[in-house]
Amino acid sequence: MKRLFISIILICIVLITASCSGKLPETNEYKCEFDTKNKTVSIVGYEGSSEKIVIPEKFGKYTVTEIGRNAFSKNYELSKITIPETVTSIGDRAFELCIGLKEIELPPELKSIGNAAFSNCRSLRKISIPEAVEKIGLSVFTGCTSLEKIEVDENNSNYVSDRYGALLDKNQTTVIQYPTGSQRTKYEMPNTVTTIESYAFEKSKNLEEVTFSENLKTIKSYAFQASGIRSAEFSDRLEQIGNFAFNESKLSSITLGNSVKSIGDSAFAWCTSLTEIEIPSTTDVIGVSAFFMCTSIEKYTIGKENKKFASDDYGVLFNKDKSILLYYPVGSATEEYTVPSTVKTISASSFSTCLNIKKIIIPDSVEEINDLAFSQCPNLADVIYEGTKPESIAENAFEK
Predict the structure, then answer these.
(1) Looking at residue 16, what is its pLDDT?
(2) Angle of CA points 116, 117, 119, to nearest 5°
(3) Contact predicate 72/94, CB 8 Å
(4) What local confidence, expressed as pLDDT, does residue 2 receive?
């Protein structure tokens, strides 16, 4: 009995010793998270300074299967990285702002690429999407200003690239990303496209002309922000234009079609070359600052059947009953303007940066003049208010 008891104790000591000796392997400059059950490892950080990195396939008995969230982000010195074939997932922002990264080959068994995984990799010129990839997150290649081509393996079941090197879903209903660094000046969109994803053409400086799909319904936020696009003509199927969709672009002319329902916040802000815009009868939402700093606009025209907005003979944009003056066409050559007697509110920045206006007559119906309403109007010398005083005038309403 005594011998049996001693034997049990010895076995317990051996088991405890074995358990305690299960020390995780050294990872050197890599920060890792280990899955001891599945014997896999996720790289979650890098503390080295090498320009060229070859990630090992294993650390001890643990196989590298994932590049985690932010693992290599803001590694400014990195120019080339080799990812082992065992990796199946790249996390959100894994290589964000690796501004020197020029070369990367994605492993053949890779299944998912997280949101903004390669955003602002400004030196990256080409990327190939393997056959196995099932999911590509949002804004994966946003700000990759040197990217000239995105290639997708022809056997991939979820994504495809077109002859311009743009990334689309397999059915070609959504343009996900145009190669921002492409030298092409023209792009012809497949007629199957119904949606342009957020940031898809952002900062595509060389792109001047786009032939849009006749079936396009939705342009998402920031889609053409700061792009070189000069003109845009849409079919009667377009319904939504997202926030900042054409903000800071080179647009000089646009035809919206007859189905647009909403124009997002700052959708055309800072489009300083845009001279005229016709808003269809179907539009019932115009977002905040939608036409802010459109310094060349000479006229706003509203479809006659529109139930939410109206314009006058001077091309000024109002709400339907003209109680709110929304936008004055600041590129107009008109030197004197009388605000209609229906107006109660003059909106923020509505006359801002109007260079030609010299005289404005404001009726006693006006109760409110909002922030920066007449700011930066250098030649406005004569302001006549026909009442006693509006109930509310923003302190900066006439700021020079």
Answers:
(1) 36
(2) 55
(3) yes
(4) 46
Both structure tokens of 359: 């005289």
User: What residue ranges in 107-261 does DSSP mark as E strands?
Assistant: 112-113, 126-129, 135-136, 149-152, 159-161, 167-169, 174-177, 186-188, 195-196, 209-211, 218-219, 231-233, 240-241, 253-255
Q: Which residues pair with 394 in a beta bridge?
A: none
DSSP tag of 18: H
Cβ–Cβ < 8 Å for 101, 124: yes
DSSP letter (8 states) at residue 400: -
Give CA–CA dist 320/343, Å, rounded.
11
> For residue 391, what are the contacts with CB-CB under 8 A and spacing of at least 6?
367, 368
In angstroms, the CA 350 to CA 342 distance is: 16
State how far the Cα of 139 lies from the Cα of 196, in Å rounded to an integer: 12
Question: From CA 239, how far away is CA 245, in angstroms rounded?
Answer: 13
Determine the 3-state secondary structure of 310 from DSSP. strand
CB distance 297 to 277 below 8 Å: yes
Q: Name the 3-class secondary structure at 19.
A: helix
CB atoms within 10 A of CB 62: 19
Spans of the chain below 70 pLDDT: 1-22
User: SS3 for 393?
Assistant: strand
Residues 6+ apart with CB under 8 A from 300: 276, 277, 279, 291, 311, 315, 316, 317, 327, 329
> How far apart are alpha carbons 134 and 383 in whole angstroms?
62
3-state secondary structure of 14: helix
What confidence score (pLDDT) does residue 12 get? 41
* Angle made by CA atoms 102, 108, 109, in degrees to the nearest 5: 125
Q: Which of 267, 288, 173 is nearest to 221 (CA)?
A: 267
Query: Alpha-carbon distance 190 to 204, whole Å?
Result: 18
User: What pLDDT shows up at residue 22?
Assistant: 60
Per-residue model confidence (pLDDT) at position 390: 84
Residue with tokens 């053949």: 108
Instruction: Tell me whether strands 80-82 and 309-311 are parallel, antiparallel or unpaired.
Output: unpaired
Q: Which amino acid is at 245?
A: A
Instruction: Residue count of the chain, please give it.
Output: 400
**What's the rounded Cα separation, in Å, for the pair 73 and 128?**
20
Q: Which amino acid is at 125?
A: R
Which residues partner with 345 through β-bridges? 324, 368
Please choose, from the candidates 175, 221, 166, the residue with its C-alpha nearest in 3D space to the C-alpha of residue 194: 175
